[in-house]
Amino acid sequence: MEERLKVLYRNCRLCPNLCGARRLGESADALSDAISGMVPLQDEGVTAEDASTASGAGIVSPQLRDAVAQERVAAEASGAGMSANRNGSSSFPQCRDDAFRSGFVGICGETAQVRVAWSGLHRGEEPPVSGERGSGMIFFSGCPLHCEFCQNKQISKRSGLGLSLAPGELSRMMLSLQDAGAQTLNLVTGTHFVPSILEALDEAKSCGFSLPVVWNSSGYETVEVLRLIDPYVDLYLLDIKTLDLAVAGRFCGSSRYSEAILPVVRFLKRRHPETSLVDGDLKGVLARHLVFPGSIDSTVNFLHWFADNLKDSFRLSLMTQFVPPSREEISFTPVSRAEYNMLLRLVDSLGIDGFIQEPDGKDALWLPDFSRDNPFPESFADPLPYFLELKHARGVGDFA
User: What global pTM score does this model have?
Assistant: First the structure.
């Protein structure tokens, strides 16, 4: 088998979409045997415990769960790629065979080659993550989850912007961020490149890399991938976007998000029963929850669920600044001051510790532009010189 297929297989088999892994695994059993050190492919689905937890919080109704089941049946009937896994249950959606074979591009929009859309120091993250110097960001191109109103759509969409890197170059990028004075290494949406990222981290650590590692993720993961990255991660900056199937279907690209996040949360709670955000002792889980337009009731339900299940283990970052990327085409009513004050009181009454974003704070309505050397306001970020060196040495083609 070609080496690129081996790399693709080890990356894809860990993604919740299972597109490349399932296709390669079915067509080339010898390939799976050729890759050592990988745990068996498994589909970490929603358990009865998960369903009970969400339903008990008043978030998932039987009607909505039935609707998701009907959606899966329809997808399978239309040839959208649903298939049975080894224990007979439905997996997440897969790529069509013809799409996969023509260039080996997964649902994430990426191939086996790691691509990075931007790297530099960013001072706009939560204070413990950014510190005074800024968090050392590496934004990976592509995404297993395609949210309709993603603010980073320039880089998350299929064939989005990005610079192809070898593992050695990714390792050097990590070391360069440390040399630039970064407070943390912040790996953004790296799920579909995990084995390559771990290879780069191993190489960087052998060369003196010692920054706290932040795994900045949508939460659309498999437990299998978490088992691999967990020894490397100090703090999970984890989205828990919603547990509401209807909200997930509208804003998260798939209603299945609300199912996939539950095993992830349960796994991380077991592995990280305590969270510390103290400088020099960064560990655990800082969960981000964005208030989607018209979904205050869903957020209220989520906050009660969080207080009942996670507040003693996780910290919360409640975000209220929803900015759609195409405001000319669609507009949403922002969170009002009255709604914001209500959420403040609720968080306080529930005893939840963490951060709350101001709804009308400074620089609230800007969107990053990854076609620029610095996608962010100058006060927020500084590009990494090594990233710019690679980008300009290779021309703008990778960013066209």
Answer: 0.79
